[in-house]
Here is the input.
Amino acid sequence: MSITALAQEAATGMTDKGLQQLGAGLAIGLAAGGGATGIGILWSKGLEGIGRQPEARSTLQGLMFVGFALAEAQVLYGLIVALLLLLGIF
Amino acid sequence: MALFLATEAVEKESPFTELTGHLTPHHYGWAPHWEIGGIDLSPTNAVVNIWLASFLCLAIFWMAAKKRSLVPSGVQNVIEVMVDFVKVNIVYSVMNNKDGKKWFPFIATVFFFIFFLNSVGLIPYIGFTATANIFVTATLAILVYVLAITIGMAKNGVLKFWLKTLVPPGLPKVMVPLMFLIEIISQLARPLSLAVRLFANMLADHLMLLVFAGFIFLAAGTAVIYGILPISLLFMVIFTGFALFVAFIQAVIFAFLTTIYINDALHPGH
Amino acid sequence: MHLVLLATEAAEGEGGFNPFEPQWGLVVWTTVAFLVVLFLLSKKVFPKLQEGLADRERKIADEIKAAEATRNEAEKILADYKSRVAAAREETTQLVEEARGQAEKVRQDLISRAEGDARLIVDKARRQLAGERERILNELESQLTVWSTTIAGQIVQRELNADSHRDLVDSFIADIRKSEAAKS
Here is the structure.
């Protein structure tokens, strides 16, 4: 650890590792919030559609699962960034 | 470098260190060491996993294809239902009949290969998934993407293909440079997102299971174990079920996007 | 087993969690495995599977066609049967109608005959009544002549020739009758 980093830690209590962990938490937290919102909207609209047109159920269900997987992937991009931060690769 | 320990060696050994090691390929002590041209080709657990998935995939298909009966049963029935699913819901929902007939074997192979790779990791005692490694998924994604653009260039001519792909027709002249930039980024994002999506999903599933398993080890020897143990086990069961679902749906997504990319390459500018 | 292996290998610097650590061997193996699976599946398995599926589809199509033919035949038979039933029903209706017509005719016959009989009886009775009335009137007339002669003789207290008086009374009664007939 450099002198300046030590000085910073002594002055504020902030360490590089602490900041990495903070960033990782924010990354996955915000990503999960966005993904949850997206999946919520997707399923609410999908179910609405099924309610309005029950005969379109099988088509809509397939598309909803695809959309679900695509929205979920966005959360996992956040997870990857969180892991990169935790591992100190960035 | 371990996840929660980082560089502090003085801290108490965390169970997560050992458990997350499951997600990194490692050499077996008894296995031979193969190396060709500086590349380590020795059978690590990841390599064995890939072998196993390929073998299972081939064996089950061989069984289904060998014993043909008009009224299907057992393996043949399951395989036929899945083949039909790939055919109807993935290939023919995107491609026209002529392209679909030609490309169905490739897309079905992509689907089943990835599905078996994903699923093999969920068999008890294997405890490792090859697709939870970004190098495996990136290889598959790049293979598929390179194949798609090669096909596109061979069919439409190199210059025409890139022109049609990167500059959508019927665009006002002012918008062309902007769209050109956006299209280049979207083309680059295709293999990247394909690889990262599959990798992240499989990694997240196994990470989730390992975290709940880690809680048990963390609580071992303390009083809270009686509360933690059943809850952790319940969540592990639930997440194993979810992992099965994800293993299937991610194979579907990968095959579906592969179909779309190949179709885009065959008919650029749509 | 893995844990033990991991523990021994962690000492060699492996086993730490880093999914981004380069694994060029995996790239090679993935490519090889994918190409082998692709080659075997697309050369050996999928043509066979497709053929089987096509076979089944053809067979199912054939069976559907056969079933359709059978159904058409059944429909034809059913239509035939139905038309026959309809014809029989029509015939029955006609028969019933005919019987009803005949019954009506018989009824009319009977009624008209009974009416004729009744009229005859009434006529006969009326005729008898008229004859009786005539007879009674005649008798009354003759009696009346006798009685009136006797009464007149007593009143006048004079012996009269019965014959001349009878003539007188007869003419008188004839007068009365004439005037009555004129009145009625």
User: Anything to note?
Assistant: Residues 46-183 of chain C form one domain. Chain C has three helices and no strands. Chain C touches chain A through four residues (CB under 8 Å). Helices of chain C lie at 2-10, 24-156, 162-183.
